[in-house]
Amino acid sequence: MTMENQTTVTEFILLGLSNDPRLQIFLFVVFLFIYLLTTIENMVIMLVIKVDSHLHTPMYFFLSHLAFVDICYSSTTVPKMLKNFLSRPKTISFHGCLAQMFFFTLLAATEVFILSAIAYDRYVAICNPLHYVDTMKRGVCRMLVAGSWGISFFYSLLNTLSVLKLHFCGPSEIGRFSCELAVLFSLSCTEAFSSQMLILSSSLLLALSSFLFTVSSYSHILSTIFRIHSSEGRQKAFSTCSSHLIVVGFCYGSGLCRYLQPNSFSSVVLDRLFSIQYSILTPRLNPLIYSLKNKEVKATLRKTMGKKPIVFEVM
After folding, report:
1. Which whole-number Å values give the CA distances from 309 to 23, 60, 76, 315, in the listed order?
2. Which tens digits make up the pLDDT trace of 166-188?
3. Closest of 259, 28, 65, 233 to residue 145, by C-alpha
4. 188-229, pLDDT tens digit by residue?
5. How many C-beta atoms surround the C-beta of residue 313 within 10 A?
6. How far apart are CA 185 and CA 196, in angstroms?
7. CA atoms 273, 279, 280, 283: torsion sign
8. Burial 71-105 (b: 16+ CB within 10 A, else e)
9. How many CB atoms lie within 10 A of CB 204?
10. What is the DSSP string of 142-199?
11. 11 Rama class: left (phi>0) / alpha (psi -120 to 50) / beta
12. pLDDT score at 257
């Protein structure tokens, strides 16, 4: 069949998590609750950092940007998923799919780079404390955040432009609740080997550079901590980066499980579970981990709200 005689797909069908109407109502309630918690808790962290001058430090500057990214990250996919739980047909236009994929990729990459910036901040604070103030100036912090957004923007733009070159003639069903680059390539009627190799190369370059930078920072941090003679000193030093280390481990660990799983374990169910994890659960867990492990944030919450922040300590 020639390209001229093929039907062009103008919208995609998001199959989502289930076709059972009763289960969809249950899932709607569950994910709406998670989304509201994610949004509220990240907004609270941003507010707390804004109002408390004691938290106007480089680490909390990065943390406030991470909270903002998590709100946007979750908002890229969850509202559409919630709408589809209650509506039929569960469609998304081609351009809507491209927009969702662009912002999802932009925010995911930005989060990874901001985590690397926090790792660098902890490296300077623990390994070179005497030069911390001079090294982590306000201008440097802003450049690190701007660089995170800038690199992520061009990377996401590259992904989006590669999809614009593709032709879609059917099928139009996406077996997930959001548009993802790998799925769109699989649905394309166009030979896209060169585009896939370009995207794969750029993804590996960015992921590995960020990962190796973070690993290198924490290698030096742990080496410095282990050289501290007193156990109290080691505990105090480690407590300043433990929250971030948990978030980084969760981020990269889930990514490795998602993309390096053996073929024998590959399934639609696993793919959907991993999509839920990095699209919904990661933005939900980040504020939870930081608030639970950070005494300064909890103290400021108590002072600001006038009572103990139960939502962060119980849920």
Report:
1. 32, 19, 28, 11
2. 777 767 777 777 787 777 777 77
3. 65
4. 777 767 777 887 888 888 888 888 888 888 888 888 888 877
5. 12
6. 8
7. positive
8. bbbbbbbbebbbebbeeeebebebeebbebbbbbb
9. 10
10. HHHHHHHHHHHHHHHHHHHHHHHT----S--EESSSS--HHHHHHH-SS--HHHHHHH
11. beta
12. 64
What is the C-alpha separation between 240 and 87, in angstroms, rounded? 46
Buried-exposed string 135-171: b where 16+ CB fall within 10 A, e elsewhere: ebeeebbeebbeebbebbeebbeebbebbeeeebbee
Q: Cα(206)–Cα(153) distance, rounded to whole angstroms?
A: 12
Task: Look up residue 283 and give its amino acid.
Answer: P
Helix residue ranges, H only, the chain: 21-51, 58-85, 94-127, 132-135, 138-164, 181-187, 193-226, 231-239, 242-259, 268-276, 282-293, 295-305, 310-314
Nearest to 21 by CA among 87, 113, 95, 105: 87
In the numeric block, the tokens 């993309």 are attached to 259
Whether the bond between 171 and the residue before it is cis, its omega within 30 degrees of 0, is yes
Token pair for residue 73? 């990250």
Q: Hey, what amino acid is at 285?
A: L
Tokens 């994929």 identify what position?
101
Q: Cβ distance 148 to 82 under 8 Å?
A: no
* Sequence-ordered list of residues with C-beta below 8 angstroms from that of 115, at least 6 positions apart, any chain: 66, 210, 214, 244, 247, 248, 251
